[in-house]
């Protein structure tokens, strides 16, 4: 089961719950963006939020650079 936790600047943080080792549920987090469509899978929630923040910062810097250079 997937649940979107946060989305900003084209970056998404999703919580994924799945069955692992038979009946035990495992929760992981996926950070995806236009740069990295396949996403990065992270097991620790705090690390996932930090990775999300870093990816948002990179995305915003890339956008501002694109606007400043007038690239189309």
Describe what this molecule looks like in 3D.
- With 72 residues, the chain is of the alpha+beta class.
- The chain is built from one helix and four strands, in the order ββββα.
- It has a four-stranded antiparallel sheet, with helices on one face.
- A hairpin with a 7-residue loop joins β3 (24-32) and β4 (40-42).
- The radius of gyration is 15 Å and the shape is elongated.
- The N and C termini lie far apart (38 Å).
- The model has no long low-confidence stretch (mean pLDDT 85).
Form type: elongated
Using only CA atoms, what is the Rg? 15 Å
Question: What is the share of helical residues?
Answer: 25-40%
**Structural class by secondary-structure content:** alpha+beta
Span between termini: 38 Å
Low-confidence stretches are none
Quick one: how many beta strands?
4
Order of helices and strands: EEEEH
Number of helices: 1
Mean pLDDT: 85
Strand content bin: 35-45%
Strand order of the largest sheet: 1-2-3-4
Sheet with the most strands? 4 strands, antiparallel
Task: Compose a concise summary of this entry.
The longest helix has 25 residues, at about 45-70. By secondary structure, the protein is an alpha+beta fold.
């Amino acid at each position: 089961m997937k649940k979107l936790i946060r989305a900003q600047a084209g970056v998404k943080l999703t919580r994924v719950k799945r069955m692992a080792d038979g009946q035990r549920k495992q929760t992981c987090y996926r950070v995806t963006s236009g740069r990295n469509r396949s996403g990065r899978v992270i097991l620790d929630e705090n690390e996932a939020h930090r990775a999300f923040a870093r990816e948002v910062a990179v995305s915003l810097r890339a956008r501002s650079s694109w606007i400043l250079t007038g690239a189309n």
